[in-house]
Amino acid sequence: MEERPLQITRRPGLGNAGRRIRVRANFFEVLSMQETNILHYDVNITPVVPQRLNRKVFNCFVEQNQAALSGTKPVFDGKANMYASTGSLQLDADSFDVDIGEDDGAVTTRRPPRRFRIRLRRTRAIVLAELFQFLNGRADFTENCQMAIMAMDIIISHSISTKYPTVRRSFYTPQGSKHIFGGLEAWQGYYQSARPTRGRMMINVDLSASAFYESGQLIQVVAKILGLRSPDDLRRGFSPNDHHKVEDFVRRLRIKENHRTPQRKFKVEGLTQTPATHTTFDLADGGNTDVRTYFQNTHNKRLIFPFLPCVIVRRNSFIPIECCDIIPEQRYIRKLTGRQTDDMMTFARQNPNIRANKIQDGLNILDYRSNDYLRQFGIRISTDMTVVDARVLPTPTIQYHPSSRDHHVQPKDGVWNLRDKKLATGAILGSWAVLSFINENKLPDQAINVFLREFIDTCVQTGMDIPNKRPPICRENPIGNTEESLKKAWLKAGNVAKAQPQLIFCILPNTGQDLYGEIKRVGETVIGVATQCIQGVHTNRPKKQYCANVCLKINVKLGGMNSFLVPEHIPFVTEKPTILIGADVSHPGPDDDERPSFAAICGSMDARASRYAASIRVQERRYEIIADLANMVKELLKTFYQTCGRKPVRIVFYRDGISEGQFNSVLENEVKAIRAACQALEAGYKPTITFVVVQKRHHTRFFPMDRQNTDRSGNCLPGTVVDGNITHPFEFDFYLQSHAGLLGTSRPAHYHVLYDENGFNADSMQTLSYNLCYIYARCTRSVSLVPPVYYAHLVTNRARLHASGTPITFGVVKQELQKVMYFV
């Protein structure tokens, strides 16, 4: 008999734990919408042109064919879908010729077409009654529901997408844009999405940001790309490196001529290798000339920068850089540099008050009330942020070693420190070496010894045992053979201590990833020794707080335990043998065609849920389901048994990195894999399983309504939980803001319980998830995600560093490190 597919768990009721408050959420209620069906049409536009021109073609078609469309104004997604209100539209299938008139601003290497053909074919009526049934918890989510929500997304974005650059659900405006390094601008964007919630549809509106090319004179932007003060500094010409930088920036950029009227528009194909004075081409009369002479004779244009290369706009067609202007509204889609990323982060980071005000600015630009398309579909949207019921969960108590002066800690606002506290289980560090990649002139041995004294004192005060207080100091070249450098330090550590080396403490000259990555690859997959990297700048006047943070990392890398929760605050874990598992899959970047995806799971090893072991696999690129999950879970279950001598009878599996559209397939595949792992260990071994998806990539934000429920950063307090109003109509989900705010507006984690054999209610699941956020090993702050998921994320990031060679090969973490938290 075929197994029935697993059903997603329904909400067991709302939570009651904690202090009740109210907060604003960036959701805007859909006050009314039509109850009749929406018609869906397939749209085919020929010839094929970019999406923005598609929209212009469609709008011209609507204006020119109002009679055929019975006076209606359908909406279009810019690709292949049209939606219309049922009304009086009788169209089934037809084709129309469309003339878009004069220049539309499109840019190609050839003159763009002016006449188009649109073919329409009616596919279905979207039954809105099914959506209303779903919203009220009386029916499951059907294809009709999905189509209706997609249609709403197009209806609310159709008008705005004809006025502003649009990327998926966000549109961007130059108002308030800011220059960032290298010829780019940061633009403010506004995100909007139709969301089904309990009993009603809502529109989620949030801020977004994206980089755009700076418009205007190309010569000015070229100076900025090269970090120069003005174009005058270009008189020295281009070095080979300058040429590469500029060509990489301008390739595929849309430009227009500025030396004549009408201004023709082009897409840049590249840069000439020669300057304008030496770039030649054939004339129509059979002669030959260079670009500088041609522009002087034909356009009466004397070039100021004839010694710079020209842009190539098509074969044998060249334009001097100074005769080009960059067309506005072009999004920069390549990878940003570190400095540009920092600039973008600064621009996008808004404290809650400013973010709420800017969201309201976005509402004003969207102007839902005056939107004819919304009116046609009977949609009215509130312009007030939704006020939602929330609760602030009680703070758990953290336990340190009993000999500590302050061994039970109840943090305030999600933050505490290590003063007067000793680690729950301090590790012994006897065999180790210091490896400095900074030469003795810049960082003398004396400075390293001063740092080590402070660092060792802090570690000992915090509960570690360091019998070897004078480790050997080695020095190596940062661009030398890192593997050899680490092996030498490892041997020296072992020879001095006459014991197996436990740690290589590396001092790095900067934050560069190459050296750091190679240290981790060699330490973890070649030698099998823990490594701790710090930047040289921190050795100067060492701060106790910094030393304490490093101590936290080293302690768990050596098998120690930093802290744990008092048993009564995680009863689900302490009452019966329970393993917590976090899982994540990370994928290569969009420009990376070689690297695979990495899957990692991290599992707790005992009843204190503070120490974790990891299992990792390389898998097919962009494959979201964890392919070898059964064997990975089996590894962690074995480790749990070896550590505490008992088999888990309960499994809580927190899964990161999947979207709503993948819920069913991931649930079906991965719960089966967990069950298979248990069966493979022992026939009849059937621990109860709870499967929870954790999402951080969403646009839900909360804004406090009064000062007493606000932390120092202006955000909601740690422990703020929302499980009604804006959550799923009937499934078991909630938003939890578990961390103290630092900069900008905090993003809550969205927890969605897909499957539950453990009988959690809302309070027990929310409290467990929140309390766990206080025992993340790397810091003395509550964190924004449950630690098992955080650790899985760290492990997938670390796995990327374990790659080497061509073709790429991936090192396996050495056995001696697999049962300690080497990844912290």
Automatic annotation (TrEMBL):
Residues 217-328 form the PAZ domain. Gene3D superfamilies: 3.40.50.2300, paz domain (2.170.260.10), Ribonuclease H-like superfamily/Ribonuclease H (3.30.420.10). CDD domains: PAZ_argonaute_like, Piwi_ago-like. One of its GO terms (molecular function) is RNA binding. It comes from the Eukaryota. It holds the Pfam family Piwi. Residues 503-804 form the Piwi domain. This is Piwi domain-containing protein.
